[in-house]
Amino acid sequence: MAGTLSSKETKTMYAADWAANNPLLDEGEIGTEVDTGVLKVGDGTTRYNSLSTASLPKVLTGTATAGAVTLAARAGKITTEALTTAQNLFYTLTITNSAIAATDAVFASVANGTNTQGTPMITSVTPGAESLIIVIQNKHASAEALNGTLVVSFFSVKI
Q1: What would the pLDDT profile of 2-44 be if each residue is shown by its tens digit?
Q2: Please, how many CA atoms are within 13 Å of residue 39, restricted to the half-sphere of its CB?
Q3: Helix, coil or strand: residue 158
Q4: 56 in Cβ contact with 36 (< 8 Å)
């Protein structure tokens, strides 16, 4: 399904090792060169050395209010409002974004901003027509609620 969260493996090697091995990456599998930052996405039929290099977009920043932010960029770093999400509950971040298409592959991560407790984890990333929805769950093992801001980073790849 286009536009859904995938569990494809990301492989990393040095550029010289990629060139020497020239492996075949599965469709959607990502290969990165740790020394150069080059990123390539496999198609299941083309060897690594012949794949096109994916361009990483400029990262823009924004601050969410009530779970929403507008950002027109293929990559972003969003600071949430202060959260008090309880254990096993969800926070939904809706990004209105004219640079995102429903067919994009979107990769996201979450880190603590001012938050010092709870265990925030991304549970879904759903690109849409000019929008992106990222759902984060507090997966802490005890009843510890989130107590501050999170920083959500994302980038999209046109497929």
Answers
A1: 444 455 567 888 889 999 999 999 888 888 877 776 788 888 9
A2: 11
A3: coil
A4: no
Give CA–CA dist 151/74, Å, rounded.
16
Residues written for the chain:
159
Q: Rounded to whole angstroms, how far apart are CA atoms 132 and 116?
A: 26
In this structure, which amino acid lies at residue 124? S
pTM, two decimals, is 0.68
147 DSSP assignment: -
Which domains does the chain carry?
A: 10-50 (2.10.10), 59-157 (no CATH)
User: Which residue type does 126 have?
Assistant: T
Long-range CB contacts (< 8 A, 24+ apart) of 125-130?
A: 125/5, 125/154, 126/3, 126/4, 126/5, 127/3, 127/100, 127/101, 127/102, 127/103, 127/156, 128/3, 128/100, 128/102, 129/101, 129/102, 130/96, 130/97, 130/98, 130/100, 130/101
